[in-house]
Amino acid sequence: MNMKLKLTTLALGVTLAAGPAMAELVFPSLSYRTGPYAANGIPFADGYADYFTLLNERDGGIGGEPIRMIECETGYNTEKGVECYESTKGEGALVYQPLSTGITYQLIPKATADGIPVHSMGYGRTSAKDGSVFKNIFNYPANYWDGASVAVKHLLDVNSGSLEGKKIALVYHNSAYGKEPIRTLEELSKKHGFELSLLPVDHPGQEQKSQWLQIRREKPDNVIMYGWGVMNQVAIQEAANIRYPMDQFMGIWWSGSENDVRPAGEKANGYKALTFHNVGDDFPVFDDIQKYVVGTGKAAGAGDQIGTALYNRGLYAAMLAAEAAKTAQGIHNTKAITPAQMRDGMEALEITEAKMTDLGLPGFGPEFSVSCENHGGNGLVAVSQWDAAADSWSLITGYEQSDQDVLTPLIAEDASAFAAESGITPGC
Amino acid sequence: MLYRESGDFSSSYAEDSQTFPIKFDRYRYYFVMFIAIAVIPFLINDYWVNSLFLPFLIYAIAAIGLNILVGYCGQVSLGTGGFMAVGAYACYKLMTSFPDVSMLVHVLLSGLVTAAVGVLFGLPSLRIKGFYLAVATLAAQFFLVWLFNRVPWFYNYSASGQISAPERTFFGINITGANTQAWATYLFCLMFVIFSAYVARNLTRGSVGRKWMAIRDMDIAAEIIGVNPLRAKLTAFAISSFFIGISGALFFAIYLGAVEVGEVFGIQKSFLVLFMIIIGGLGSIFGSFAGAAFLVLLPVVLKIVGVDWLGWPTDIVAHLQLVIVGGLIIVFLIAEPHGLAQLWRVAKEKLRLWPFPH
């Protein structure tokens, strides 16, 4: 009981000690370098941190304003995510990128009430694309439903335009994240006449024998995977064990990192994964990273992830955040922007090829622009394939747009349900 | 000097059987209650509520519940996470079905629903004991989590399978949802903590608690002296689950706001609450509080010291925390099996004799 006393004294002590410093642009990084999802969490966190370090070292921050990145370990755990959110929001956090669908769901109402934007890039709640309802939530440039739709489009291309009578299995992380694409895939299966079977894998996903036994028995023509963390490696290993043809096995972008395919070695050759940005380190920005970040010994983590798929995604996320901050500085004509101004910047964000070339990232991602009605970009997704001999990913298609005829009504339906549930009047 | 029985005379039965027979203890209790009810609500902000007070208060309720079952009645349970999930989903279904009813009613009803489920899963305890019962409750844990993941009715057919707490009020004040005040959620949870601790303390002092303890110490002897094992064990399961259900409902509705059953109410939660009562002290209400405070505070304090002050990498601190908690559990099991509560008890004993110890 006297714990409470101690707490109060501690509370007073800490509030006095940690006064917020408002002269910097604060970007919290809700990362996870521990637990079953660390293999995927580390490269992303390193990429996110390194890009901000690069901006600080090379340009002195964004528009001359230094960046302060606060890293907070969530372990992909929602309770720790809440703690991280609460402990960093008082520091003037401009945007949250929690890299976890579960934490995003938590933050959607909280961040909206606090007026802080959330950028769930390629994860989170898909219907957040509807900016008239989700005013503070952004999920550009692509979302889970885009992923599902482009996966099916790719299969259509491969199967010369028809999936009639084909069997497609979805192996998914049995959580909000993995369940997201089911609705879309069900709609698409009606439209294209393929048969969909669902195979949930429970957290953390180390045990998948029964799911792959079922795949061996049912022999689906294609397997789509929505996995994360250790689940990816295990699934690819299991697929290799039952000799499932790798080129008929496709993962969402969260199931497409080097760490996922390497454990299966040669057998993972030909595995496909979706992506919404380019792969590899053949971009001018990586020279700057070598010079300003690695060269000065400021690389995040062990510094061994540079150029991997998820490192690039972390870098891309940081780049989009920095560009949005620049846009916000332009709109509001101030350097020290507030979270509300950052939100305006994100809503006015425009990514063009010229801009990316300027940043040393030519052709790194699709062009897109954000508006109040559309917080999700254009849904342009490409397919990449793993080459085990060369130990690298390569894009095998261009950026294709998802099936908007199917997705738009689904998004409108889910967004209006959320608006009704939480008493929001949609409007721009 | 201050801490002693002498000079404190009881002149009625009620006074004689009060919870805190020593004056110093009594005033300390009043003082803590005063601070908790009348001082803290004015000082706290979102960070203190969401990072420390809410988890502490809610885990304290869960620990009290589990302590009744494990500490007082001796029935080992690994189903805490599952029972908390029952409370959370019951609360969600009630909140969405009856939006106009006060949250107080919803939370209490969720506790009752969980009590019923707890009794159901407690039935095997009449035949099996010890490790075998632990395995049976483990089955409850996995079954319940599977059930809430599998049956869409429980999450109102939402596409993601998540449950999110809509805005609900208590006497017109927002308690759940995004637009809550720190003091309101704190006081709402505090109310349940005081209620739970009061009820649990008085149950365990009374005839019901004595029956539980008789069963715990030796069930055959207890049966011979006239304790009905069926009733004793099932009441323990019911009351324990009632509290755990309340904590699950608060955990979902007030603290997290959105829950995914496999992640939040998984087996780790069962172990966490079990560790709380092991570190805090089996068979002690104070121990439930001490254990909950310890395991909620430790990661936060480690993070503040390690990351914010010393500037260590976040992953090192996170790993260090696992090492420390693991080490502490071993230390407690060897050095002080009765937990923090026993340390407190020994300290009080020493104080009574001070300044002339034997």
UniProtKB/TrEMBL annotation, chain A:
<feature type="signal peptide">
    <location>
        <begin position="1"/>
        <end position="23"/>
    </location>
</feature>
<dbReference type="Pfam" id="PF13458">
    <property type="entry name" value="Peripla_BP_6"/>
</dbReference>
<protein>
    <submittedName>
        <fullName>Amino acid/amide ABC transporter substrate-binding protein, HAAT family</fullName>
    </submittedName>
</protein>
<comment type="similarity">
    <text>Belongs to the leucine-binding protein family.</text>
</comment>
<dbReference type="InterPro" id="IPR028082">
    <property type="entry name" value="Peripla_BP_I"/>
</dbReference>
<feature type="domain" description="Leucine-binding protein">
    <location>
        <begin position="30"/>
        <end position="388"/>
    </location>
</feature>
<dbReference type="InterPro" id="IPR028081">
    <property type="entry name" value="Leu-bd"/>
</dbReference>
<keyword id="KW-0732">Signal</keyword>
TrEMBL record, chain B:
<feature type="transmembrane region" description="Helical">
    <location>
        <begin position="101"/>
        <end position="123"/>
    </location>
</feature>
<feature type="transmembrane region" description="Helical">
    <location>
        <begin position="236"/>
        <end position="259"/>
    </location>
</feature>
<feature type="transmembrane region" description="Helical">
    <location>
        <begin position="27"/>
        <end position="44"/>
    </location>
</feature>
<protein>
    <submittedName>
        <fullName>Amino acid/amide ABC transporter membrane protein 2, HAAT family</fullName>
    </submittedName>
</protein>
<feature type="transmembrane region" description="Helical">
    <location>
        <begin position="183"/>
        <end position="200"/>
    </location>
</feature>
<dbReference type="InterPro" id="IPR001851">
    <property type="entry name" value="ABC_transp_permease"/>
</dbReference>
<feature type="transmembrane region" description="Helical">
    <location>
        <begin position="271"/>
        <end position="296"/>
    </location>
</feature>
<keyword id="KW-0472">Membrane</keyword>
<dbReference type="Pfam" id="PF02653">
    <property type="entry name" value="BPD_transp_2"/>
</dbReference>
<dbReference type="InterPro" id="IPR043428">
    <property type="entry name" value="LivM-like"/>
</dbReference>
<keyword id="KW-1133">Transmembrane helix</keyword>
<dbReference type="GO" id="GO:0015658">
    <property type="term" value="F:branched-chain amino acid transmembrane transporter activity"/>
</dbReference>
<keyword id="KW-1003">Cell membrane</keyword>
<dbReference type="GO" id="GO:0005886">
    <property type="term" value="C:plasma membrane"/>
</dbReference>
<feature type="transmembrane region" description="Helical">
    <location>
        <begin position="130"/>
        <end position="148"/>
    </location>
</feature>
<keyword id="KW-0812">Transmembrane</keyword>
<feature type="transmembrane region" description="Helical">
    <location>
        <begin position="50"/>
        <end position="69"/>
    </location>
</feature>
<feature type="transmembrane region" description="Helical">
    <location>
        <begin position="316"/>
        <end position="335"/>
    </location>
</feature>
